[in-house]
Design brief:
Keywords: ANK repeat, Repeat, Signal
InterPro entries: Ankyrin_rpt, Ankyrin_rpt-contain_sf, Dendritic_Spine_Reg/Scaffold
Helix content: 40-55%
Shape: elongated
Strand content: under 5%
Radius of gyration: 23 Å
Protein name: Ankyrin repeat domain-containing protein
Organism: Flavobacterium agricola
Number of domains: 2
CATH topology of the largest domain: Serine Threonine Protein Phosphatase 5, Tetratricopeptide repeat
CATH architecture of the largest domain: Alpha Horseshoe
Distance between the termini: 95 Å
Length: 221
């Protein structure tokens, strides 16, 4: 009887081990290597055939993980091996969208040069530009706003453009003044209002953002 029980136990344990396939282990390993910023380890894994678009349990691909960790060299390596800059996680983040939102200008440039799409949006139906405007990332805004055909006046789920977000959620300081100037210089439509029809100028007046009021008032003068 004891022998029978032992055989059954071994069979159950063997079945559990079999559920973890070599592919699962390889995926887990390369995700760990990326998170540890182990450049050489990741390079070796990719050269050995690891999938450059491996995802974790939140559907975050390796490139998004590198971007989340601000690991620029890792991101460059992954892009060189064909990583998808537009692949979205469960929360709809992508490497390109997150790079814009977090002000990682070098990565924004890299992703633009490697197929970044302008019709892929985050969970707020926002572009890479809108959160960059909100958070005062001047150089990132400059890169995106000057990119040919970039949707500078895209409206997110809240009813805001990048310009509206810079005024409504910004504090009117120098960075936000510069962002407003960049957007206007690159064709942003200051007449677009929020869901209630309130324009950026009207919001600036309500918030007493003196310098931004001057900038917006002087448009087309």
């Amino acid at each position: 009887m004891k022998n029978v029980l032992m055989i059954c136990l071994i069979a159950i344990l063997s079945s559990c081990d079999a559920s973890t396939t070599p592919t699962d282990m390889n995926a887990k390993n390369i995700i760990e290597l990326v998170n540890a910023n182990n450049i050489n380890g990741v390079k070796e894994a990719l050269e050995a055939g690891a999938n450059v678009n491996t995802t974790d349990n939140q559907n975050r691909n390796l490139l998004l993980l590198a971007t989340l960790n601000s690991n620029t060299a890792m991101a460059k390596l992954l892009v060189e091996h064909g990583a998808d800059v537009n692949m979205q996680a469960k929360n709809l983040d992508s490497a390109f969208l997150y790079a814009g939102a977090s002000g990682q200008t070098e990565l924004v440039k890299l992703y633009l040069a490697n197929g970044a799409r302008f019709d892929v949006f985050n969970r707020y139906y926002g572009s890479a530009l809108i959160p960059a405007c909100e958070r005062g990332h001047v150089e990132t805004v400059r890169v995106l706003a000057t990119t040919p055909n970039y949707p500078i006046d895209h409206i997110n789920r809240l009813g805001w453009t990048g310009l509206l977000e810079a005024v409504i959620l910004g504090d009117g300081s120098k960075n936000y003044q510069e962002i407003v100037n960049i957007l206007i210089e690159n064709g942003s439509d200051i007449s677009i209002g929020d869901r209630s029809g309130v324009t950026a100028l009207e919001h600036a007046k309500a918030k007493r953002q003196t310098k931004i009021i001057e900038i917006l008032t002087n448009v087309n003068k």
